[in-house]
Amino acid sequence: MDLVVTPDLTRWEWKDEDEYAHVRRLGIVSGTEHRAVDDARAEVLAMLAERSRLFAHAERWAAWRWEPVWPTPRLPRSRAAANRVASEGG
């Protein structure tokens, strides 16, 4: 689950909670897995409240900007995709 936090760390919300509840109802996420998710959620919220670890230097992250001169990142082409393109004459 994604946690969306405002840059000043004053507000937050979990994304996709309804989808998570749905997979829980379907039994895709077991009780054991759910407890691990709950533990992880509690841990990250504690870090947020304490402004520790990931959230210790939030002001630096809030000020971070992409440099326009940096090249756009690209994922490497997989061999399967390269082979498919080659076999299709692309």
TrEMBL record:
Sequence intervals crossing the membrane: none
Gene3D superfamilies from the UniProt entry: FomD-like (2.40.380.10)
Domain of life (superkingdom): Bacteria
Annotated DUF402 domain residues: 2-51
InterPro entries, A to Z: DUF402 (IPR007295), FomD-like_sf (IPR035930)
Protein name as it appears in the record: DUF402 domain-containing protein
Organism from which the protein derives: Streptomyces sannanensis
Classification of source organism: Bacteria, Bacillati, Actinomycetota, Actinomycetes, Kitasatosporales
